[in-house]
Each structure stands twice: as structure tokens, then as C-alpha cells.
Amino acid sequence: MNQKTILGHSTIQVNRIGLGCMGMSEFYGSFDEAESINTLHKAIDLGVNFFDTADMYGWGANERLLGKAFKGRWDDLILATKFAVMRGPNGEFLGLNGKPEYIRQACEQSLQNLEVDTIDLYYMHRQDPKVEIEEIVGAMSDLVKQGKVKYLGLSEVNAETLRRAHAVHPISALQTEYSLWSREPEKELFDVCKELGITFVAYSPLGRGFLTGAIKSRADLETNDWRLTLPRFTDEAINENLKFVDAIEQIAQSKGVSKAQVALAWVLSQNDEIITIPGTRKIFRLEENLGAFQVELTKTDLDIIQKSMPSETIGNRY
């Protein structure tokens, strides 16, 4: 299995398994800064060179954590961050903002948080419905001209919006949720990405940890875990959705690998250009995830998974 691919409209080679850093500052229960920094350093040592954050994760804390962890090591990695989701001083969500003036401010703040002069890949996190995509990408394009950003990305947009955006400035990456239980991108987005030379970045490839088999009930999550608010993590949904875990269990057992490794290998096998960014705070999980490169899924394996998967996922993503 290819371990690297070229990122969109660039000459940069990135690891096809990167690291999502969101949970190091918020959302998935308790976290520990020292442990997170150790994991980030270990990731670079293991050859991971693609890291994903956003200004809204820990409302700036996640970017500052990476700024601290990667000081003096920026040449070893490619960093993606995002703008558009506004947070208040106490973390309250204040909606989306895609106005050019806000984009400029958000970029300045991210550069400050990360303590860098340039952001490798700058994503629009979600589209502000009040601002046309052409205006948003136009403002992002200005940041490239000013040398503050190298490459542009979008997150969670449809095929038509992606085309319109790409007509304004080359889009290098589209980030969207994709995993065994979230397969919507297969309908149109894969084809458009291929046609336009855009790298597809799959976030939550392990279904927010669910596909590893570690979450059998709500009791397996800490009381402050954001997943408890999601429709897929009600008791009833968990019960039904465990069929997805069963679908990969037999392949994992037959190969002597973990369910997480099968779930990641499945995502990577869907096409050669997909990058995936499973998130973790722990070194042993990081090593386990990278082990997915060693898992070869045959056509028979893929057929077995396809046949044993439920026809639908219970509960919306959000």
C-alpha cells in the first residue's frame, strides 16, 4: 500500500495516515498536555508529516499546543489549520463567519498561535451560508499572494461548491468525514476530486473511535465527552451500529490485526490518493494506526466487509 501521496496542487509528499489533533485540547474527555506533546514528537519520529488542527479546537489552545510542540521542527512537517467557526471567550459557539475581513483576522491569529510565518494548508472549516464561496476563496487566495498561506483547502462542501471554489483558486484538499459508517463522499466527491486534482482528506476514519470496538455503550465515554451529544451515540444507535464493528471483526481476527487497522486500511484502499487523519492523544494508538499500512485487504476481504455491513447507519453525523 502506498504510504505517501502528493498533496493536491503542490509538490509536497504527505503521509497517507496523518494525525488529527482536535482531541488533544477538547471534545473527547480529559487530556494531558505533556502526553499530547510526547505523542506529537513520536509521530514525527515515526515518519508522520501531516498534522491537522483548527482555530476553534480549544478556541486557540490546540494551535498553541502545536506551536509549542513543533518549535524548531517545522521543516519536518506539513500543518493544516482552519477558520470559520467562531468561539467566544468561554468557548461558546458564535456561528460561522466567511467575511474577507474576518478571514484575514483569523489567519493572523492562527499564525500567532502557531508561532509561524506561513500556514501550509489553510481550510475553510464550514461555509458561512451568508457569504458566496467565490468571495471566501478570493479572500483566501489573497493570503496566498501575501505569503501567509501556501495551499488552500475546504471542509464539508458539496461537489458544485467545490467546482466553483476551484475556479477561483486551485483547491489542494477537501476534508470530509469518511469511514465505514459515513460513506456519502463516494456519491460525487471522489470523482470531482480526481477530476480536479484535489486530495481527499478523510477525517474521523475510525468513526470517532467507534469502529475500533472500544465504545460498546455510553458508559464507555466520560461525562464531558462531546460524543454523548451526537445522534450516533445514543444507546439505541450504539446498539444497532455495533454491526459495523462486527463487519470488520472477522477480517481483523483472520489477519491477527486490530479492528482500527482494518477500518483504516479499508479507507485507504478506496483510492490511492486518499489521506486519512485519525486522531489520538496516545502513543500506543498512534503506533497501532500506522500499522494499518501493513494490512493488505484482498478483494475477498473487501467483499466480506461490504456484504456484512449494515445497509444504513443509525443516527445522523451531527
Q: Share of helix among residues?
A: 25-40%
Output the CATH class name: Alpha Beta
Number of strands: 12
Level-2 CATH architecture? Alpha-Beta Barrel
* Helix count from the secondary structure assignment: 10
Largest sheet: 8 strands, parallel
Q: What percentage of amino acids are in beta strands?
A: 15-25%
Shape: globular
Low-confidence stretches: none
Straight-line N-to-C gap: 32 Å
* Rg measurement, Å: 19 Å
What would you give as the CATH superfamily? NADP-dependent oxidoreductase domain
Average predicted confidence as pLDDT: 94
Structural class: alpha/beta
Explained architecture:
This protein has 318 residues and is an alpha/beta fold. The protein has one domain (4-216, 259-296): TIM Barrel (Alpha-Beta Barrel). It is 37% helix and 16% strand. The strands form 3 sheets. Strands 3-4-5-8-9-10-11-12 form an 8-stranded parallel sheet. A two-stranded antiparallel ribbon has the order 1-2. A two-stranded antiparallel sheet has the order 6-7. β1 and β2 form a beta hairpin. α1 crosses α2, α3 (100-114) packs across α4 and α7 runs antiparallel to α10 (299-308). The model has no long low-confidence stretch (mean pLDDT 94).
